[in-house]
Amino acid sequence: MYQEYFTEDHNIFRATVRKFVEKEIKPHIEEWEDEELFPVELYKKCADNGFTGLRYPVEYGGTPCDLFMHITYTEEMIGSGSVGLISGLGSYDIAMPPVLKMGTEEQKQKFLVPVLKGEKIAALGITEPNAGSDVANIRTRAVRDGDHYIVNGAKTFITSGCRANFITTAVRTGGPGHKGISLLMIDSSTPGFSVSKKIRKMGWCCSDTAELSFEDCRVPVENILGGEGMGFYGIMINFQTERLALTTMAVAVAELALAESIKYAQTREAFGKPLSGFQVTRHKLVDMATKVQVAKEYTYRVAAKMEAGQDVTREVSMAKNFACEVCDKVVYDAVQIHGGYGYAREYLVERLYRDSRILSIGGGTTEIMKEIISKVS
Ligand SMILES: Cc1cc2nc3c(=O)[nH]c(=O)nc-3n(C[C@H](O)[C@H](O)[C@H](O)COP(=O)(O)OP(=O)(O)OC[C@H]3O[C@@H](n4cnc5c(N)ncnc54)[C@H](O)[C@@H]3O)c2cc1C
Asked: I need a surface site. Which of 32, 44, 48, 172 has the fewest CB within 10 A?
């Protein structure tokens, strides 16, 4: 299926990721979810298997490939049943693109190379307690003092923030608005940096999410990416691929919830017959399958356009909203089909229901996507 998008190379890679998920993740995922953290060694294992750095240049330890290889990876990792895991492992993929696209050779060697080797952890620090969707309004300040910036402020909801070594941090070096924003690479060993809170969440439990504090952090001037005032640009260039990744996750979660529901409906009996024997259940499953199929087809189409170099700002926002809406409905129905068991921790659909809720909030909320769609013709 989908031969227009996936080749034999994708299929081989898919089998490799699936094997990894079966061996290295599935046997432990319940424990990691309960402990609210996956082991740090997993970063290295992923890097050693060539999963880290897909689409990054080979000279920095990456694997040049197309978007569909990335989609293949995401789809298979969602098979682990934990969206938090893939998001935690993937925090580098929102933190490192500005380093790759705007950084100097020295910055790439210092930050990108160890991250792609799985030796260091990277996080992206944009959101603040008082500025989420309104990125241009961030307040964390970086004031130049000789060959350092003195950074003061706070970030919140930072994926992998509790144990990141490098934080690609949005700071204000200039006046108000988006033109005053810069991106600064901050090493978590810098005095004055601290994790002020590990945030406990509804889902994405095994992925750590942090509130960060910067108090008179002295950061070398050479850690700025692309110069002062380039931060907003750096944040924006990343958004389309991040949104496509979240869209892919939403579709893959919905597909997994559907598969679980079909299996359950065929085995669970009520009133002397399997649930799938009731027309109302079959029709519910058909509606779920239809929604998943349409969302998947559109997501692949948008990815193909992106891969061809077309501007898909509008389409990717539409795809994200559509896929998240489909996912919300499908996981809701999946829990319903499972009855009381759908509400129990032992059943996968319970976690899929919780883990998917953030997809329409992170990377730009549904409302912000609509604003973008209404403005881009
Ligand atoms: C688990 C998790 C992981 C995250 N990871 C990261 C990370 O790694 N790095 C990072 O920087 N951030 C991260 N975030 C933050 C995330 O990007 C923000 O939560 C998101 O952008 C929304 O910002 P906010 O929470 O401040 O909500 P707000 O911006 O305050 O929005 C609240 C509500 O108001 C609506 N709203 C806001 N503005 C408008 C408008 N103009 N028109 C209509 N409606 C509007 C929103 O759509 C939303 O419904 C993460 C969040 C979570 C929960």
From this structure: 48
